[in-house]
From TrEMBL:
<dbReference type="GO" id="GO:0008720">
    <property type="term" value="F:D-lactate dehydrogenase (NAD+) activity"/>
</dbReference>
<dbReference type="InterPro" id="IPR016164">
    <property type="entry name" value="FAD-linked_Oxase-like_C"/>
</dbReference>
<dbReference type="GO" id="GO:0071949">
    <property type="term" value="F:FAD binding"/>
</dbReference>
<dbReference type="InterPro" id="IPR004113">
    <property type="entry name" value="FAD-bd_oxidored_4_C"/>
</dbReference>
<dbReference type="InterPro" id="IPR016166">
    <property type="entry name" value="FAD-bd_PCMH"/>
</dbReference>
<dbReference type="InterPro" id="IPR036318">
    <property type="entry name" value="FAD-bd_PCMH-like_sf"/>
</dbReference>
<keyword id="KW-0285">Flavoprotein</keyword>
<protein>
    <recommendedName>
        <fullName>D-lactate dehydrogenase (cytochrome)</fullName>
        <ecNumber>1.1.2.4</ecNumber>
    </recommendedName>
</protein>
<comment type="similarity">
    <text>Belongs to the FAD-binding oxidoreductase/transferase type 4 family.</text>
</comment>
<dbReference type="Pfam" id="PF02913">
    <property type="entry name" value="FAD-oxidase_C"/>
</dbReference>
<dbReference type="Pfam" id="PF01565">
    <property type="entry name" value="FAD_binding_4"/>
</dbReference>
<dbReference type="GO" id="GO:0004458">
    <property type="term" value="F:D-lactate dehydrogenase (cytochrome) activity"/>
</dbReference>
<dbReference type="InterPro" id="IPR016171">
    <property type="entry name" value="Vanillyl_alc_oxidase_C-sub2"/>
</dbReference>
<keyword id="KW-0809">Transit peptide</keyword>
<dbReference type="GO" id="GO:1903457">
    <property type="term" value="P:lactate catabolic process"/>
</dbReference>
<dbReference type="InterPro" id="IPR016169">
    <property type="entry name" value="FAD-bd_PCMH_sub2"/>
</dbReference>
<dbReference type="InterPro" id="IPR006094">
    <property type="entry name" value="Oxid_FAD_bind_N"/>
</dbReference>
Amino acid sequence: MEQFTPTQIDALSTLVSTDRFSTGQSNRELHTKDISPHRGRLPAGIIWPVSTEEVSAILGYTYGQGIPVTPWGAGTSTEGNPLPVEGGLVMDMTRMDRILAIRPQDLQADVQPGVFRKTLNANAGRSGLFFPPDPGADATIGGMIANNASGVQTIRYGATRDYVMRLTVVLPDGRVIPTGGKAHKSSSGYDLTRLFVGSEGTLGVVTEATLKLAGIPVAHLAATVVFNTLEAASQTVATLMGSGLSPAALELLTPELIGLMNREKGLGIAEKPSLFCEFHGVSEAALHETAALAEELCRDSGALDFQTGVKERERKDLWRARHEAWETIHRAFPGRETLIVDAAVPISSYPQMVVFSQQQLDAKKAVGFVFGHAGDGNLHVVMVGDPADDGEWASLEEINDSIVHRAVDLGGTCTGEHGIGIGKRRFMQLEHGAGYALMKQIKGLIDPRGLMNPGKMFL
């Protein structure tokens, strides 16, 4: 659906103020692409609600009219999760951006879905608190909930679903339901909150969330660990994770990516297989003891160098460069697109996956970079190519398929944090087996007309 009828335009226009509904070409085109290589179908219109009541009224109307609805956050998805594949109405949630309350005594915040992660942390930080999930991009909270976003600090702090306590959700037909509560534990009924976290907007629209917050750590210590081989670096991950030292972040980087980062950011890091580690604690003294033990373990595992004492500015520069790895790769290959593998495996299988992935790139002479959140077994392979070149792009898809199949064979997943969206739908049956059919039944129960973010997760 790329055009509304005049009657539909009139009806939708009455549900929000005149400046918050548009059928203009430029607004529609802006909502056909995110940062992924996928492209959506031109929607018939964009609407910007500001309250639960407006979302309810909008969905009540669209469901009766058979209009597909696609929720939209910051547009930072790497799998086309918010792209309208059947046109219809895009519901842009970025004007529902109020922090309703920060309650330091409860370590909680109540927010609308359009609040950006960095904005929440800037406000929570005044009370010595923060929202730990960090996907790198400044995503909206609603988008992070929809994708169960995580990031570099997941091994210490967990993913978004670990911080969502309560939701207000508008179902596809406009009904409003609450899920969860503000108590820190409950044994009451089905966990509906977890059903909606990670559902990618296919079951409804989150309009309010209560989130757990954590105390900002007093001290940070960063370390860079250099190895001679990629296999030695990745094998050390299991050693560190099993040591009880509890790193807050543990990232694997290959020489090729470090080279790009050095040239763009001037970091001066050795261009060898490396681990970037960060530890959080109550004092600098305690962290130096931790680092000494970590260094001993790493050197026993073949580390060539172990550097700590990274200054605060250098630490932030290092992590900023890591967060911007995808952008750095994109800038290094102008005019090309990236295909991102986001598989995750048990930590014991991580070395095997790293070596296997590099072998796949080498065998097909593909341009690609292997790295990832090594501490939780999440592997990223960013491949570069031209989607218009069918042969080249098909080769990248073959590499993607082979890595995902190996990950699933090892008890892993096709996506550790980016979600299914458009790009990974074909792997759902492979990964979930009979559970995939049950997921489709749940979707059909809540959204029998299939109008809520259609074309995502399921083929």
